[in-house]
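ok trying again, last paste got cut off:
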Amino acid sequence: MIRPLLVAALVGIPSVALAQAAPTAPSTSPSSSSTTATSAPTDICSSGLSSIVSRPSQTTAACVVKSNQVLIETGWQSQTVVVGNGGSYTYQSGPNATIRIGTSLKNVEFDVIPPTTLRSSGVTALSDVGAGLRWQIYSTPTVAYGFNTIVTGSTGTNPLTNPNGLGSANTGTYIVNANVQGALSSKFGYGATFGYDSLAAAGTLGSTRYISMVPSVDFSYSMPASWTLLVEGYRQTNGEGPDTPGHTWFDTALMKDIGNAQLDINYGVSNGITPIYGGPSVQRRYVGAGLSYLL
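nice, full thing came through this time. structure:
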C-alpha cells in the first residue's frame, strides 16, 4: 500500500483535504428557477443560490456572499484509493465546512474553514484550520469574474501517526484561485477556475513544499423544480505530492435548491498515475453529499 503525501488544507470544494481528497467545490452557474422571462436578474450574482454556492465541484464561484449574510457550506465524502498492486484503502471526511461571511466592503467576503475529521483504518485525524478572502471583481447579467485566497495553519493531526498519512500539512499552505462563471443561455451555464496552490507534504524529515496548478472547467444545466446537473473536468499537477505526475479528474453532481438551502450529491474519478518510478499506480474515486444554507 502506498501512503499518500496528504495535504490537509481545506477548500471550499472542498470543502475537502487538498491534493488527496478530491476537492468538492461549487455550482458556478445561475439557477433558472430564480428568474422569469419578464424579470431577468440585473446581475448574474443575484440570480439565485446556485450562483454563489461553492460546492460540490472543484471550480470555485466568482460571486460573493452579500453584506449581512452568511453562507454555511458542509459536506461528507468517502474516497477510495486503488493501488495497482491490488491494495486499496478508503477514508471518510466531514463536515468539510466553509463559513462564508459577507462584509461591509464592496463585493468582498471573509471565509473561515474549520477543521474536518478524517477517518481511515480505525484512526481519526483532524485537518488544518484555514481562512481566506473572496473578491467579486466584475459582474454583469451574463458573466462574473473574481478571485479568492486561502491560508491554512499547522493545527491538525500529525500525519505520521496514522496509517494513511491523513491530517495536517505540518506547515502553512497558500492557495490563490482566479474564477469566472457565466450563462450560455437561460438553462446552460459554465464556470472555470485556475488555481495556484503552494502546498506541503509531510515526511520523516519535515515538510517539503511544492506547487500544484489546478485548472478546471464545468458546465451546468438548470432543470425544472430547481434541480441542476453539473459535469466537470480538472487537472491537478503533482497529484500525489512533490515531483509526481498529475491527476486528471472527471466528476458530476446533482443539486436541488429548497428555499435558502441547497442539497447536493456528487461522484468523481481520477486517472491512474505512477507516483514513484517502477512502483504501483494510484487511482482515486469519491462519492459525497452536502448541504449549503444561506442565513
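cool. The radius of gyration is 18 Å. The chain has one domain: 10-294.
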